[in-house]
Amino acid sequence: MKVEHILRTKESRVVAVRTNATVADAIRLMKAENISALVVKDVCRTEGNTLAGVLSERDIVHALLDRGATLLSMPVAQLMTRQPVTCAPADSLQHALHLMEQHHIRHLPVLEDGHLVGVISARDFTRLQLQQFDGQPVDAAAAAGSTSYAH
Questions:
Q1: Which residues contact 83 (CB under 8 A, 6 or more apart)?
Q2: Would you kindly state where each structural domain of the chain is located, as residue ranges?
Q3: What residues contact residue 66 under an 8 Å CB cut-off, 6+ apart?
Q4: What is the CATH architecture assignment of 3-146?
Q5: pLDDT digit string, tens, across residues 59-99
Q6: How many helices (H) and strands (E) would you count in the chain?
Q7: CA geometry: angle 26, 115, 82, nearest 5 deg
Q8: Distance between alpha carbon 135 and the CA centroid of its chain, in Å?
Q9: Is 103 within 8 Å of 116 (Cβ atoms)?
Q10: Mind listing the pLDDT tens digit for each residue in 104-146?
Q11: What's the predicted TM-score (pTM) here?
């Protein structure tokens, strides 16, 4: 099975933040969208498809320990992971999982010809496994919004 299978079965909207947004802005967006990572672009949310980096909860938590509250006013560009690990739609799911495990990441941007086409996450793999256990497809949009957890 290929990465493109996951992309076809999940909500296609990728939540993004601009490089010049503050970390506080990024945290607010992550909270509002109930997500744990943001794609960082040089342009507004859904315009364009060039990946500048990724900002995750882990990035924020690790930096908070070092920088304290001053972190909140910093631009995302200073904290984001530049040149993040990526995969392609034609890559196998096994390869994508291997990348995530090898690099200790939970979110993997998907690029096609250098352009962002989506993001897959550890949650997507869990959902796929549940589908295989149940023998039925799970509506990704409904499943994503059905339960809210703080961890």
A1: 53
A2: 3-146
A3: none
A4: Roll (3.10)
A5: 999 999 999 999 999 999 999 999 999 999 999 999 999 99
A6: 6, 6
A7: 45
A8: 27
A9: no
A10: 999 999 999 988 999 999 999 988 888 877 776 555 544 444 4
A11: 0.80
